[in-house]
Design goal:
This is F-box domain-containing protein. InterPro entries: At1g61320/At1g61330-like (IPR053772), F-box-like_dom_sf (IPR036047), F-box_AtFBL13-like (IPR053781), F-box_dom (IPR001810), LRR_At1g61320_AtMIF1 (IPR055357), LRR_dom_sf (IPR032675). Pfam families: F-box, LRR_At1g61320_AtMIF1. The protein starts with a helix and ends with a strand. The chain is built from 12 helices and 20 strands. Among the domains are: 41 residues; 136 residues, no CATH class. Helix 5 packs antiparallel against helix 6. It is α/β, with parallel strands linked by helices. A 14-stranded parallel sheet has the order 1-2-3-5-7-10-12-14-15-16-17-18-19-20, with helices on one face. A 3-stranded parallel sheet has the order 4-6-8. Strands 9-11-13 form a 3-stranded parallel sheet. The chain is 28% helix and 21% strand.
Length: 449
């Protein structure tokens, strides 16, 4: 009798478990394909062994993500595994594209440590993606430690000979290139035969001999270049660019007839303005709403007379090196040139910050920021120079609602451990609270991250 009760109770529990019903098998194929699309393709193909129904489902996935991150971690720990892992990765990609029979691919992503010696394989994969009318193409070929390698070792992108004026790039909307070189002529050809290309991001690439992009037939909306080399000038003109981000060495920048340009992020900017950065961006000054300037050596005096009016800039970020405790208040002149400013962000990069004992200086100007609601200071350490920037906003922002303090140090390297930086950040939080809390006007919120 006792055994019967036990079995009966067990049956009740089993019926109450959602796991006792195979919900996944009851889903329609379309839903299963969506689930598979969220996986790296390596994992999606494994499902083919589950049953007859699953055998060919993965071939309907239109997002082919060949993410080799796990293999790269192994390679970074043990150099002896590099050749083995590369062989396995290349075979994996080939096995998938040989078996793949869907007429199109929406996303195609390669993420592995590959270079110029692997050009034959990469060429073939790009041709496959273009043949499948790819919309988003990503070639992330940085080394196993995510470092930028010598440009001479990078894979160079050349268009397949089958691509013509009306070729396979008609569907391309987003192109991301990490550790990939290309020439000016190749870049021009890509833009010419990709009428729907809206995003072009490049990192650690060599673009030679210059970047020259312009013309009404170009649809590019967002263009980003980070840690790229091989050129001394960038010329952009006559198309509907909305956002341009350039992070790298000082170059000659020419912008003209870009009436839709809203976001501009450029660096490294010469603090003394010898590179005439404001004259370079003057043609689009009326349209800008977001401006980021990287000025790493603020010891030199700022040429205030060179600053131009930026009537529609709502968000301004100044990125500055801040090893010393020198006064940085002169850079608020750039903020004063933005009458519509709503968010003022200051990113201070330090490694071994110096603290000095001196009086807090204030800006004597009667300028009032009518719309400034948010001040962000990243890299606040509690030096007098840090405090002065916060006091400036408190004194001159009539609509100030919030101050955000992020003590995170963005510098790296040297003999300091992560624990050392954590201790410095904790000390910075204490300094920020002690210094700023007594100064806050009513209605202004202080947030210390």
């Amino acid at each position: 009798m006792k055994n019967t009760k036990r079995r009966s109770a067990q049956t009740k529990v089993d019926h109450g478990r959602p796991n006792s019903i195979d919900f996944i098998s009851k889903m329609p194929d379309d839903v299963l394909v969506i689930i598979l699309s969220l996986m790296p393709i390596k994992h999606a193909t494994v499902t083919s062994v589950l049953s007859k129904r699953w055998r060919h489902l993965w071939r309907n996935v239109i997002r082919l993500n060949f993410d080799g991150t796990k293999s790269l971690r192994k390679m970074a720990k043990d150099e002896k595994l590099c050749d083995i892992e590369k062989y396995k990765y290349i075979n994996q990609v080939y096995n998938v594209i040989i078996s793949y029979n869907h007429p199109r691919v929406q996303d195609f992503r390669i993420r592995f440590d590959l270079d110029s010696s692997d050009f034959e394989e990469i060429d073939e994969w790009i041709k496959f993606a273009l043949d499948k009318k790819v919309e988003r193409l990503e070639l992330d070929l940085l080394d196993k430690n995510y470092h930028v390698r010598d440009p001479d070792e990078n894979y160079e992108l050349r268009l397949p000979s089958s691509v013509s004026m009306v070729g396979e790039m008609l569907s391309l909307k987003n192109l991301f290139l990490d550790g990939v070189n290309l020439s000016e002529s190749t870049l021009s050809e890509i833009l010419k035969i990709s009428p729907h290309l809206e995003k072009l991001y490049m990192f650690g690439s060599d673009v030679y001999p210059r970047i020259h992009v312009g013309g009404q037939d170009i649809n590019l909306k967002r263009f980003k270049l980070v840690s790229c080399s091989g050129f001394e000038s960038i010329t952009l003109y006559g198309f509907g660019l909305v956002s341009f981000i350039y992070c790298g060495d000082e170059i000659e920048l020419r912008l003209a007839d870009l009436p839709k340009l809203k976001e501009l992020d450029i660096g490294e900017v010469s603090v003394g303005l010898e590179n005439n950065v404001f004259s370079q961006i003057s043609s689009c000054a009326l349209y800008l709403e977001v401006l980021v300037l990287d000025m790493w050596c603020p010891q030199k005096s700022l040429d205030v007379n060179a600053i131009i009016k930026l009537p529609n800039v709502k968000k301004l970020m100044l990125v500055m090196g801040a090893e010393e405790d020198d006064c940085l208040l002169e850079f608020t002149s750039i903020a004063q040139a933005c009458p519509s400013l709503e968010t003022f962000s200051i990113s201070l990069h330090w490694y071994t910050p110096t603290k000095r004992r001196r009086k807090v200086r204030r800006v004597a100007s009667s300028h009032v920021h009518e719309h400034l609601r948010l001040l962000e200071i990243i890299g606040y350490y509690g030096r007098i120079s840090d405090l002065e920037l916060a006091v400036y906003a408190i004194d001159h922002a009539a609509a100030l609602k919030k101050i955000v303090i992020d003590p995170c140090c963005h510098a790296s390297g040297g003999d300091f451990t992560r624990e050392d930086f954590v201790m410095k950040e904790q000390a910075a939080r204490s300094s920020a609270k002690r210094q700023l809390t007594p100064l806050l006007p009513p209605g202004v919120d202080l947030s210390i991250l």
